[in-house]
Amino acid sequence: MGKIRIGIFGFGKTGKVVANEFLQDSLFTLVWVVRKGDTDHQKYASRLLGHEFDAGEIFSADDIDDSFFRERPVDALVDFSDSTGVYLYAKAAQAGIPIISAISQYEQEELEILKSYAEFAPVLYSPNITLGINVLMVAAQILQKIAPHADIEIVEEHFKGKKEVSGTAKRIANVLSLNVEEHLNSIRVGGIVGRHEIIFGMPNQTIRLSHESISRAAFGQGAIFAVNFLIGKSPGMYTMETIIAEMFRQNIPVY
């Protein structure tokens, strides 16, 4: 079986790390990278990331035309650009190419466009595609059902430069039906990439579920996990949470 061919949208701080994870995995070949501007146009992502081979030719958004995806075929498309990237790969979706979107937040119109692609191709959307954070969210929902009267608080810690409240923390609050203003606590200190903790307070005991991103490479590993799952799937919308939840169901220990 040949390698899985990957196309990536986005080559910022996270996009570069994600591209590098695919470059280092022997199961994949990085065919191209699309970025907004024409910086490093038609150079190779592999060379820019320190590798001694050519892979991941860099194109600008202006290079995307009706023939782009036909002339440069890939087996899956991974989007780490921004919310407007969804306008660029309609032709890929219509051709049935699996799409993995890791955009943190879409406007409603953009989200509807992404959902429309699921008529033609398998589409996986996860605002935080790290494996750990999705395991955390599924585990938290299970625990909430087991202990519905527990007090729950969410703590999100990030680097000093992050001004906005974590979108992932808001998502956790949403899946647990918690008011963001009342139950979400933010901390900004140096040296932290990103950490989320869910605290369940019960009489005489406390349960803490936590996840910490040590490196942006965790996003690349999550994207690799998502691609491996999505290849060969039928058209439709998928999420990391539903995948993890199904794995929980299949692996519950029997005593």
UniProtKB/TrEMBL annotation:
Gene Ontology biological process terms in this record = diaminopimelate biosynthetic process; lysine biosynthetic process via diaminopimelate
EC number, as in UniProt = 1.17.1.8
Q: Show the taxonomic lineage.
A: Bacteria, Bacillati, Bacillota, Negativicutes, Selenomonadales
Q: Which GO terms describe its cellular component?
A: cytosol
What is the top-level taxon of the source organism? Bacteria
Tell me where in this chain the Dihydrodipicolinate reductase N-terminal domain is found: 4-128
Family in the record: Belongs to the DapB family.
The protein depicted here goes by the name 4-hydroxy-tetrahydrodipicolinate reductase
Q: Which Gene3D superfamilies match?
A: Dihydrodipicolinate Reductase, domain 2, NAD(P)-binding Rossmann-like Domain
